[in-house]
Specification:
alpha+beta, about 80 residues
């Protein structure tokens, strides 16, 4: 997807569940627990690394680079052709 949209700067992509840069914290959707812990710590709360179940464990970079099938990619391109 990042190749199709020229406004996404490839060099700024970090394949990690949670990324912090100064006062900005972002996360992939499935890392909501890690994100919550990071935000809580950012505002001064002392909390454990894991506060609930459902953490991403042993995730490799491939997790952050999903691929569409050729059919799905073609369908996506048709649906979003005015933005590509």
């Amino acid at each position: 997807m990042r190749e199709l949209f020229n406004f996404i700067e490839e060099e700024n992509f970090v394949p990690a569940p949670v990324v912090e840069d100064s006062n900005i914290v972002t996360a992939v959707g499935s890392a909501f627990n890690e994100f919550a812990v990071q935000i809580a710590r950012k505002v001064g709360y002392n909390c454990p690394d894991k506060i609930l179940s459902g953490y991403l464990e042993n995730v490799d970079d491939d997790y952050f680079f999903p691929h569409l099938s050729k059919t799905d990619l073609q369908e996506f391109k048709m649906e979003f052709k005015e933005w590509l």
